[in-house]
Amino acid sequence: MNRKTIAALIIPFILLGALLAPLSAANAQSSVEDSITLQEPAVTLGDGWTLDTTFSSETPYALAFGNGEYVAVGPYGTVMKSTDGQSWKALSKFQNYQLTSIEWDGSKYVMFGANAAYENDASYKPAEAFISKDALTWTKIGFKPGEPIQQLIWGNNEFVALGTSKVFTSKDGENWTTAVTLQKNGYFALGFAHDTYFLTSYDDNTVRISKDGLKWTSKKYDTAAGVQYRIWANNQYIGVGNGIYTSADGVTWKKQSKSPAGATLTFIVHNGSTFIATGYTDMVEGAARQVAYTSTDGVNWKKHDLANLQANIYILYPVKGGFAGIGSNDRQDSPDGTYSIFTKDGSSWSYRLAGTSYGTEFGGIATNGKRTVAVGLNGMVIYTDDGITWKGSNPFPYQERLGRTHLFDVVWGAGKFVAAANGGIYTSANGVSWKKEKVPFRDQYGGLRNIVWTGKFFVASSQVDGVYTSKDAVNWTKVESVSKDTYWLTSSVWDGKRLLGAVRVHDFSDGVGSTKIMQTTNGTTWSTVQTIEIDQALIAWNGKQYIAVDQYRANEVYVSKDGMKWTKSKTNLGENDNFEFITSFDGYFVALNDSMKEINGEYVNYDAYYVSQDGIAWREVRIPQADLAVSGSKIMKDGVKAYGKYIFVGYNGLIMRASELQFQDPIRILINGEELKLSSELGKPYIADGTSYVPLKAIGEALGYEVTWNTDKKEVTLERDGELTYFSNGVVLKNGRSYVKLRALTEFLGYTVDFVKANGVSTITIDK
């Protein structure tokens, strides 16, 4: 595709982005002093942890094509990349900059943005300029426009930048000249077509035109035509606005005889064989009724209803096999996410999630072993078949008054994915296309928050609408006995024989609740097991023991061996500790939350997970941090084990995964007084049935041997100084890595081994 075509396409994209900008805040960041390097997902954090920012983005303002890739930028440090214009990945954040414009000149990108805490601040805070060869490493340049830069275009071997009161030009993107002084804070739009720049002023209805960005000629803007965008095709300008128009100079317009009537058109694109013009026909409660018109000759137009495309088209551009684009929701207030749009010829359209919006979250995740699906607010659904590559599903419809469906939880059961949402229940066989099921709510505003599958029946619940059960996820029945006004099923767990639920009972006299532990074997008949003194409980089972933890005061817990008799206890956590969610992996309870501690008089936030075998003694394990300037919280909301990995999803569209979790106390290994450095990447030692296991290759090489594993003989060959030693006692495989019994190997090689445990750390010393 011609690079100049992409540059021209940016104009309405930026204007719409500015109009739709939500007023939201993010963590303020310091200014970039000299340069910043962004990272592509997924980012290795260390110790087996990976952070995936693919969907963690805001709806962008501007887009450029260069160096064989598409790059889009937007608020709160959003930088997105795509190699095909359809599949997008968000990079690590460009700190907290509100990035407003980007262009490519054939050898480098030039980008403008404001270092501002709020998105709307970009409309008045002075911009800073950056250049990059690869859209990853950016260098700050000395140009200071002294005002925001709203648009940037590369054409005729020159950059032209539109500020709020000036137009700037540059040949190289680094040395700039003020070309035009405009009315301060006026309403302007900058465009480029057929080697000509067009600067439209909507305040005094004039159009300035220029070939070089320096000398401009002012002409009258045709308000009757209301042209918002123009291209050059068929030896003439074709513009769209209050219809479709043609012009010899791009200023004086003639309406086509077959121009559509009753439509406001905002965009037009041509790939050499097909024209597509898009816009809307009317507005209903802020929702645009979108429409597209297609033509093969630019004269005869065919109308296409875009009712199924519930996302405003911000920009379209030709790609292999058709046209792609970016859009957001179909209301003119604030974006609910970023969507990748595709059409082959303008007649039928599809779109899928490409990025989240600030403050949204993935709240639930489920797997069937082959496919894993995560769901979240604003109808966000993503899926993966390997735990590494994630894709966006078909978006949920946008409902007038209700907005796009919020999805809170999801399970796999009865041969389908089943999600609990503010519209009720949605099901999908593949996690891509979803169907709404009928739940007998009292009104259209009913919704469900939690859902569990027992292998025989589903149970779904919410604080307002009560508890519902189903055997097939299609036919649902309300369970009146646990749907009282004062009841709220906050959490439940299936142990293979029965479902145990934590039902909060509200006390209207003081607002403090208690929790009834209740059980059911069929979803419809419930009985009370015991009442416990916890206001809002999270309940879990690790295969041997049950626990009910106060979600907001994790130092309070009830434990039970059989689920029938519960005993109150205190954990080793503080009264201000809380859990976002709790689950069990490999016989251990696991909980996640971001944590805060006072260090040297300052409160420091960090990410951590907590593990426990009995629910009383918990061990905090910090997750390695990375300076990625990720906006907002990194709290994880739910997790599963799939593909040999532990996968977590949470706030701001973030995904985290770990190759292994540290369930046991840390183990240090000292060899002749030197500590052996091990990690999740190399393999960590562990203890099973009182025996210490270490990664075979790491321990062998640390002892000075070259290690070879003979798969056929199930035997280890250890070579040192030309001497071969064979060993086959106690070699096991774990997570695709060979481990060996530490004492058996080292004593076989003539070493002595000692084991000491103190202060929660096990130390193994190996001496010759």
Account of the 3D structure:
The chain is built from three helices and 71 strands. Strands 1-11-10-9-8 form a five-stranded antiparallel β-sheet. Strand 47 (499-505) and strand 48 (514-520) form a beta hairpin. It starts with a helix and ends with a strand. Mean pLDDT is 89; it is low at 1-28.
Spatial arrangement of strands, main beta sheet: 1-11-10-9-8
Q: Mind telling me the C-alpha Rg?
A: 30 Å
Residue share in helix: under 10%
Q: Based on the structure given, which CATH architecture of the largest domain is correct?
A: 7 Propeller
Quaternary state of this entry equals single chain
Count the strands? 71
CATH fold topology of the largest domain: Methylamine Dehydrogenase, Chain H
Helical run tally: 3
Distance between the termini: 68 Å
Percent in strands: over 45%
Largest sheet: 5 strands, antiparallel
Instruction: Look at the structure and name the CATH superfamily of the largest domain.
Output: YVTN repeat-like/Quinoprotein amine dehydrogenase
> Could you say which overall geometry the principal axes of the C-alpha atoms support?
globular
How many structural domains can be distinguished in the coordinates? 3
Q: What is the CATH C-level name of the largest domain?
A: Mainly Beta
Which whole number gives the mean pLDDT? 89
Uncertain runs: 1-28
Structural class: mainly beta
